[in-house]
Amino acid sequence: MAAKPPAGDPVQDAPQVAAPQHAAAGLPAIGHTLRIAQQQMGMRRTAQTLLKVNQKDGFDCPGCAWPEGDKRHTAEFCENGAKAVAEEATLRRVTPDFFAAHPVADLATRSGYWLGQQGRITEPMYLPEGAERYEAVPWERAFAIIAEELKALGSPDAALFYTSGRTSNEAAFLLQLFAREFGTNNLPDCSNMCHESSGSALNETIGIGKGSVSLEDLHQADLIIVAGQNPGTNHPRMLSALEKAKAAGAKIISVNPLPEAGMERFKNPQTPMGMLKGAALNDLFLQIRIGGDQALFRLLNKLILEASDSASGAGSGATDEPFIREHTHGYEEFAATARAADWDETLTATGLERAEIEEALRMVLASKRTIVCWAMGLTQHKHAVATIREVVNFLLLRGNIGRPGAGVCPVRGHSNVQGDRTMGIFERPAPAFLDALDKEFGISAPRHHGFDVVRSIQALRDGEAKVFFAMGGNFVGATPDTEVTEAAMRRASLTVHVSTKLNRSHVVTGRRALILPTLGRTDKDVQASGKQFVTVEDSMGMVHASRGNLTPASPHLLSEPAIVARMARAVLGEESATPWEEFEKDYATIRDRISRVVPGFEDFNARAARPGGFTLPHAPRDERRFPTATGKANFTAAPVEYPELPEGRLLLQTLRSHDQYNTTIYGLDDRYRGIKGGRRVVLVHPEDARALDLADGAYTDLVSEWKDGVERRAPGFRVVHYPTARGCAAAYYPETNVLVPLGATADSSNTPASKSVVVRLEPTGAGTGGGE
Known about the structure:
Strand order of the largest sheet: 6-5-18-17-16-7
Structural class: alpha/beta
Number of domains: 3
Strand content: 15-25%
Helix content: 25-40%
Shape: globular
Number of helices: 32
Radius of gyration: 25 Å
Number of strands: 33
CATH topology of the largest domain: Rossmann fold
């Protein structure tokens, strides 16, 4: 039997600090994995569960969206994936007795780590208006409460239906169908906070908002640029793909404000030699100033054009002129803008040395097949969309889209965040999708745009929205401007969270609140027609089945498709012709409907049943066909932007520790960065710290500065002298989400600008204000 959860909330603001590590994985990763698994599941359940993770006949890891190859290792998971599985397959339980012993006011004082460690929620729980505690409630009553509140709304647009990336394709399709049959496109999702900038840029430039590469392309590449991403913590299985690419001769450039252990050396725990020696991954580390990526790629584009102009032959083939001529639009305007790029401005924006950029150029020109991978370090800035457009320009210039071993590779986070969007979880759906939905179900889906995440918070704050329904996730913990978000949520008439475990969102409630416990990926799902499976889409457009194998944590749990179907029946009643009951009984009937609505899913049931699943079509990759407004891939031109830093301030990026996945905190250590037993730390370059008179180990308040003049404060952070880029700092979220203004978002995508927050550091206790 696994150990009991911690009785008291551990201190998180007194960490021990050691030197950062320079290698990732290896024996420490194995040891930590086994220790966490034992604590949560016990040894027998650990073996029963981990050997099924990411296997063709098993379940998809509830962690990241990194794809699997056709040939799979027996242990096809990473340390953080094992943590995610252990947290879901835990033997710990949160029963009605727990809620009776802990009033909401008490739970609200607990850390997210403590809440998550309590275990799986076993029964539907209801917080009546004015009550101090959640109480158990039958499912029928829970759905009746939702129906009461939704039917009382003056407009369907006063309801919000949020989705996290963990939700299956089947559940996501049903949720968007219900929302649109109810009458709203208010379908905010976690993409709004992470890769919305990628989708905005890619849709405009290549015609599809997804990456264009496969796992095999990474293995075939000559050059891989990893920009604004930390695979060692956020996508550890990516390190294996980079290792394989290196073995085949690829070069790797890492572009990041922080040195990351996994990119320095990867000790592959799946091979003896990997464990012993490991592989150095970086060929060049560009320690860029936060937000300087657009300037870097713009200058590289200028230099590629100049190399192409050269008559010496050194630049021969620097640009792919036939590709540009046949497949692109807007080249002349782009080229004129790129040629105007300024060396001095670029060095200021990036903090790099001229020699470093020239070395990167040599590697670019020597590569015939180049891939650029990126994550939140590029997507969460005001100028994020323009930055990713510049990355696309960089790839188009040398014909690196639509050929093997080359392309765009936005690395998605949560395991089905891309699939949710494919299934129609989007506040701005394409008319063709709505037309297909209407034809299939005989409904009239609304055509006006709904609310994204930021706009949803504003709608709750301003009284435009009254009911908030979340399918998974930790909305309050994940969103920006914590005090504003929490006040907005408390204005709702009803908040509903479909969850497996406790998190901060369950204690920041509307006038009434529901927690609906659901099956997880690891759980066996048996419905009236028999055992079911669901499907997910990985970061590279592969769709495959996921089958849980564990007895559910409680007989009172419902699956996500069942919850949506029953809610729809309670709300829509006999007026709905949609066969909700049939969908709950047999998920194959959902997939039949998806096959007729969503392009690329034809014959869905048969293809999903194949071991390993199938790959969705991608016109730019498969045919060099670009379904844009011009019918070609679009070069773009935009002014170079980068954050300006007032004197005496630092530029803060929020990030994850190694003991966390999104807002789920697995532990209080960040092994690779040398942090142990705490989370309230701020990483500052020693020279910046000395200039600000910040001793290593001193405590400081982080105070963000933005144009609205509102003071946002996160108190009590230990200063850690760390080799960050100069002028830059880093600290963990969700503790620093309080510093991110709700209105500070990326142009076009409206993604919170969490990676470029201007902060001043004040001695702890010198000011008053917000914070946790």
